[in-house]
Amino acid sequence: MQTTVGGDPVITQEKISLLSLLLKGGYFMIPIGALLAVAIYITIERFLTITKAGRVDKDFMRNIKDYVVNGKIAAARDLCQKNDTPAARMIDKGISRIGKPLDNIQVSIENVGKLEVFRLEKGLATLATISGAGPMIGFLGTVTGMINAFFEMANAGQNIDVSLLAGGIYEALITTVGGLIVGIVAFIAYNQLVSMVDKVVNKMEATSIEFIDLLQEPV
b vs e for 136-160, b when ≥16 Cβ sit within 10 Å of the residue's Cβ? Predict the structure, then answer.
């Protein structure tokens, strides 16, 4: 912005708030903002759920072993139901099949494990989609913004103003920045949550193996 002081032009810097900057991005900032909100929600919800699923009492299997060895099946199942974790639900299914062939017990545990993993991974596919769709929408907004900027220049004819082009370009690039921010947030969150799920799955597998070994021990 240019002003005059004593007849001499003085250039002052125009300050812009974050909100007004986002609004200059146009309609494409609406889906970008919506994707960011969904990504944050999925990240927080999955983080809490997966963290809770990974909390297994260190004495859980020891108590299960004591109950099973002493024939206290009802007490063992009650202990499993009090522990709201995937591993406990797998063991509960296995205990309910005690007396049947070992292969049947193992298959039952594996089936429950697959369902639990599916529940843990709920929403992660959406998060992965957002990590790719966010930047693409941002680039689309930039392209349409650049088209509008050059269209305005074409209509200006001989009265082309450099500030007209510069303003159109920086407004168009806002959508790219917004899309990249969404993509980066979703990408990092997705990989972190996948890593957390893998750790929980490893605990589930270790617990199921320990239970199967328990059933194979001589009485």
Answer: ebbeebbeebbeebeeebeeeeeee
47-72: per-residue pLDDT in tens? 999 999 888 788 888 888 888 888 88
> What are the tens digits of pLDDT across the range 70-96?
888 899 899 988 888 999 999 999 998
What is the reported pTM? Answer: 0.79
**Ramachandran bin of 101, using left for φ above 0, alpha for ψ from -120 to 50, beta for the remaining angles:** beta
Rounded Cα gap, residues 49 and 46, in angstroms: 5
